[in-house]
Amino acid sequence: MTTGFVISGYFLPIVGTLLIAYLLGTIVYRLCLHPLAGVPGPILAALTYWYEFYYDAIQPAQYVFKIQKLHKEFEPVVRTTPAEVSIADLDFIDTIYSPGPSQKRDKDIEKVKALVLDSSIGGAVGHDLHRRRRRALSSFYSPRQVLRVAPDGEVLNLSDLYFGFANDFGFDQNLMAGLPGAHTRRENFNGVLRAVKLNSQFTWVRDLLRYLARSLPLTLSSYITPQTDTVGRVGQENINSIVHELHNDHKLPQSERSPRRLEDEAVLLLVAGTQSTQVALSLVHYHLMANSTIMANLRAELESQPSSTLAQLLQLPYLNDVVQETHRLAFGVTGRNARVSPDQPTTYVDKSTARTFTFPPGTSMSTSTLLVHANEEIFPDPFAFDPGRWLGPAGAARKNYQMGFSKGPRMCIGMHLVNAEMVIAIAAMARWNLELFATSYEDVTFLHDYHIITPRLDSKGVRACVKSRAQ
To answer: Phi then psi for 165, rounded to 5 degrees?
Structure first.
């Protein structure tokens, strides 16, 4: 008993001493010995992930805007977490996202964990695995395939309408036949994206829950499995055509045709193909209703081709400038869409100081779309909706900085489908006179980063009154 008392008496001091030693060692390593120790940035960001947590979870979803401010103080390179850097030099974008065939780019595994769809194309961390999954899906999203699926006084919620449209066009769900259902699902998707942001701060919790799930009694897991199986049946008809093709593609290894892999892919395609398109279409229609000159220019072009096919719409210059400007202000994936060089160091030279930074393999590197699309040197008055900025040689040069679909081998696979949806919807809705109803700029502008742009959190979406058919 005396021995036990002595041991217990020493236990807490020993544990406390070890904890203090660990914390001091971590501080010294991250601030002085870490390969990124010389990269400028806030001390707290270099020291702890709680700095990121504060701006993304407490603020909430504001870290991308904080990083934009940090670049004005420390530019052009900022250490945003103990193991991550942000680079605001737009000439360095291709080095991060599209370095060429001799260099690979992986995803940041911690950010992939936040998505909770490890078996999807978006969950492929490694370069080679992503390439294999992309190749398996690419035929479904080719320009030729997109052309084959072209569809021949009331207050409307355009956000719900466009959510239903994106579902119907891409996944044949007929949500537009019941807009209340579209509204419910749109709100559910918003909740999913906000959960992804929180997941990014606690990826270890997800790993723990998955471990516990494997340890569940058979009776409990037999109840859960049918519930999770329903997720893969969302958007059943068109999604299943893709899933069946993948399942029956015997060129793929069995691991790439497993039920979990197919379920993750189905969910990702549905979420990515619906919510971001809805946001972009709501945004563009707000700006068209708010700016009569832009709407008049668009209608004049559409009147010159009154019965355009999808292929013809995709060739209309002003309509496509409207689409380009929409992608710019929709900002694509809004967060730090980070890349990792798995096996080679990456070197950056600050042009203003000639200082050289060498990022070792495994460093998470990013340039957010906010830093690119809101760059005043490339896009003057960056938050103004101005399709004219894409005209002429200057507009062609600006397309090099279009990050709406990212860049490089991980560029959005659904780009052609999204553009087709947008020209069809914009051309159709421009033929009607609508008036904004209880909707403001804060219902469409980028105020929070929940993987895609999120306006004020209490927004009811873009709403409009139908007045008449345009003359």
So the answer is: -60, -45
pLDDT in tens, 60-72: 999 999 999 999 9
pLDDT in tens, 416-442: 989 998 998 999 889 889 999 999 999
Residue ranges of domains in the chain: 34-469
Helix 179-199 with 203-214: angle, nearest 10 deg: 100
DSSP sequence for 325-387: HHHHHH-SS-S---EE-SSS-EEEE-TTT--EEEEPTT-EEE--HHHHHT-TTTSSSTTS--G
- Here the tokens at position 28 are 């010294």
* CA 402 from centre of chain: 14
- Fold of domain 34-469: Cytochrome p450 (1.10.630)
Residues of the chain by 3-state class (helix, strand, coil), percent to 5 = 60, 10, 30
Q: CB–CB of 137/446 below 8 Å?
A: no
Task: Give start and end residues of each alpha helix (H) in 138-258.
Answer: 143-148, 158-171, 179-199, 203-214, 218-229, 236-248
CB neighbourhood size of 415 (10 A): 16
Query: Interhelix angle for 259-290 vs 292-303, to 10°?
Result: 110
> Do the strands 155-157 and 463-469 form a parallel or antiparallel pair, or are they unpaired?
antiparallel
pLDDT at position 115 is 80
Question: With b meaning 16 or more CB within 10 Å and e meaning fewer, what string describes 104-133?
Answer: bbbbbbbbbbbbbbbbbbbbbbebebbebb
Report the Cα 117 to chain-centroid distance in Å.
14
pLDDT in tens, 162-171: 676 666 555 5
412 marked among binding-site residues: yes
Of 136, 83, 90, nearest to 340 by C-alpha is: 83
- Residue 277's Cβ-count burial label (10 Å; 0-12, 13-18, 19+) is buried
Q: In Å, how far are 154, 156, 329 from 444, measured between CA atoms?
A: 21, 16, 9
DSSP state at residue 471 = -
